[in-house]
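Table S2 (continued). Query chain:
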Amino acid sequence: MKGPIVYFSSPDIKFPKKSCSRKHFAGIFAAAALLVSAPLLAQDGQQPGKAGTETKNACAAGKCQHNVRITLKDKNGATFDRVFENAPAVVQPFGFGVLAGQTVYIEADVVDGKLVNLVSVDKISAPEKTVTAKFEQVDGKGMMLTITNPFQKLLKFSMGIVPLDQKRLIKTTSCPVGAGIMSVELWQEPISQVVLIGGHLLPDGSPTACVE
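Corresponding output:
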């Protein structure tokens, strides 16, 4: 396997024109933000409103992670160490999320160039269709997301992050992952979760720059 190829994220994002419209993606991102933020707000004593009900229903249906521990150094070097009773499930309708300190394995089928039928698995048993994502803090400062692409075309996600000092999902840029290799995305701030949205394969000859 080649790599890693290292990319750097920037604060803004341009949405993929071929996968969905900006308006449609805005709706997807809003839904992702609701599901991701609600458990964090609820456990900090804030009022998530409708999101709280949706999260409660999702957890009752077994679609939550439980007793998840996140340990990070904050911007000032202090240790953040907390166990969340409820956290969003790894796989969501919009894609999947990775909490700080996690490595997830996502099996996916490809239909019309889009990743569908996503399933979170404990280990790789079907390497030809399993995306691996590892999210970790580097040297007690910034964050590194390593993504392995098992497919034979460029793999592209849109992404959002939840900074440690915030409780909301923020858009960030992302870069295509080369066919059959892994890439790395880096951020300079501590982040509790990264969300990967709308995974799809790019046509041959597509640009590899981190612009969309």
